[in-house]
Amino acid sequence: MAPDKLDRYRSKRDFTATPEPGGDVDDAATVEQARVVVQEHHATRLHWDLRLEHEGVLASWAIPNGIPPTPKENRLAVRTEDHPLQYLDFHGEIPKGEYGAGTMTIWDTGTYETHKFDAQKVEVTFHGERLTGRYGLFPIGRRASGGGSDHDWVVHPVE
Ligand code: MN
Fold it and tell me: What is the model's pTM?
């Protein structure tokens, strides 16, 4: 199989052991209503996984404290590996010893409108049941203090 955007996703998982989908990049994806899912993931540390349908995969962030509800509140959102579109409705138990072991439930699902989507900024309006309104995400990178990682972003509501 040719290398693709899901290589990192696949390399972390043993699909004979996890119930998670293998999945493929959807090259045919031309979407009128891009979909979003937020999964509540009771892994080693509880976090919420935000996944946005984009260019045939799910661009993903792990948010330790959940989506911030109030304007101007910034929360850490760690950019994680792209997931397959088949992950939009995944929920279940990832077995002990496997990557991301723990229970995953769907916290919310819906669609979103894109205002901007590139490597330096994502700005979208969510139309979910619980997740609604305009949000921005941007990378903050490694801190001058040496803390953090290159995958660190911030998510915040936009007024
Ligand atoms: Mn997760």
Answer: 0.91
